[in-house]
Amino acid sequence: MTTADNGVNVQALLDAREALKNAPEAAQFTWRATSKWQKGVHSTTTVQNFFGLGQEQSHKTETVLDADHPEVFAAEDNAITPIEYLLVGLASCLTAGVASVAQNRGIQLRSVESVVEGNHDIRGILGDTDVRNGYNDIKVTFTIDADASKQEIEALVAQSQKRSAVFDALTNPTNVSVEVA
Amino acid sequence: MVLERGEVANSWRRERWESLRLLTPNWQTRLPGHHYEGPDPDGYMTMGEVIKFIDHFAAVCRAPVRTSVAVTSLRRADDGYLVATNDGDIRCRTAIIASGACNLPAVPALAEAVPSALTQFTPFGYQGPAHLPDGGVLVVGASATGVQLAAEIRRSGRPVILSVGEHVRLPRTYRGRDVLWWMDSSGVWDQRHDEIDDLARARRLPSPQLVGTPERTTLDLNALSAMGIELTGRLAAVRDGRALFSGGLRNVFALADLKLQRLLDTFDAWAGSAEAGEGFEPTLVPASPRLQLDLRSGEVRTIVWATGFRPDYRWLDLPVLDAKGHLQHDGGVVATPGLYALGLPVLRRRKSTFIHGISDDARDVIEHLAQTLAAR
């Protein structure tokens, strides 16, 4: 149990869960991104600061993310499309979950790879009101090499989905309010 | 003395639907010195039979029951308690809260956004399909209550949509024996509260997808799909008159299937059985589960909230509830001296909330209570 080392400090997470039981207000986080239009459908979004544990927090460095659209959309393709960022978020969240759950269950991981595919009918964003704008469905396929049975690996992946913020955000509705300052 | 707000077996008389039978087989339905003696040990008691069983137990053990006495307040008084009732005050040195975990149906707040044209039921108000409006029915929740009601409403000819969150899948029988025989014999049900890794989670576990029928049929989600019941994800929101369902249905199936297999592996290991057990088909995922239902379209006219129950502690004037309203106790021992609980989920053992599960818990709790009294 104690020999597995996936580089996740599970004890700190368990301690945090315990501490936040009596301090639910400290558990309220606000994540932020700041975006700026460049030209065409190209924008640049920066992420550094967030709020949590009752105070302003900051990542060690600022992350700058560009988004654009591909040439088949008659754009310049300076970067990936916004909807692809959802796949980035989902894959990285589920992978983090697999590593954390494996650590908690004493399972040593050797490699965790996944392929994420989102099926998208683009007629929706082009104005066909009978077609939805977003993904019709998303498929994630994990390939995991670990000291565990197939059943244990399937359980890791299932538990990872159960505790994933991005999986929840994609599978359940969220109130979104967009305003003009 | 035992205080009962109504009659003996009151909740079995007034808070159950017509077709309900116990989930435990007759031979397992036992109380100290009192067990089933009829011709069908593998059957499941109807509500009428349960009421007779408990009535009879109350009579033979000569429990000092005062019926039609509702407790309106329990509070500290001197070194004991003051129990206020509709029939006067009672002072006592010790008290046991045995009012159960299922006093009120737990209906999610999103029910408030359901259009008023729909008729809504909780399991307390639901009697049977004959009392429902015609037309489609949305059943929310897939524990024992949800799967049983969905099945009987479907059999009445109505279209049924079942919204499924996390659930516990069980076959009615395994290797020819009742699955609850396995829970009992293999020792799973005797697992103690202080041996369980995540006790809070064990106490929250929904009731298993079981039904007691003479045919001993399995009522899992595959059985419901085969009856023509449409499965959707967990009801996540009601917005602008539309019910929105989670797109995570596949994973709640995977979680339940994996958990079922682990349990059956536990049974096999206990039985020392090397041969492969009965395999169970994975829960079949609908090709394209719906994510929305327009509640104003008339497709469903009724919603049944099979979303669980919660205890009612409004009468408890003591600081013994946690931030989420659960009674804080350690194996039934409440921090306030002389106060105890019985009949709550995994109170001391996994079997705590089953009828036969009360004996061992009661013995342990009463032993503590007697020592407390003796020490004064």
From TrEMBL, chain A:
One Pfam match: OsmC
The organism's place on the tree of life at top rank: Bacteria
Protein name: Osmotically inducible protein C
TrEMBL record, chain B:
Keyword field contains Oxidoreductase: yes
Coiled-coil features, chain-numbered ranges: none
UniProt lineage: Bacteria, Bacillati, Actinomycetota, Actinomycetes, Micromonosporales
MF GO annotations: flavin adenine dinucleotide binding; monooxygenase activity
InterPro entries for this protein: Auxin_biosynth/cation_transpt, FAD/NAD-bd_sf
The keyword Oxidoreductase is annotated on this UniProt entry: yes
Keywords: Oxidoreductase
Domain of life of the source: Bacteria
Protein name per the record: FAD-dependent oxidoreductase
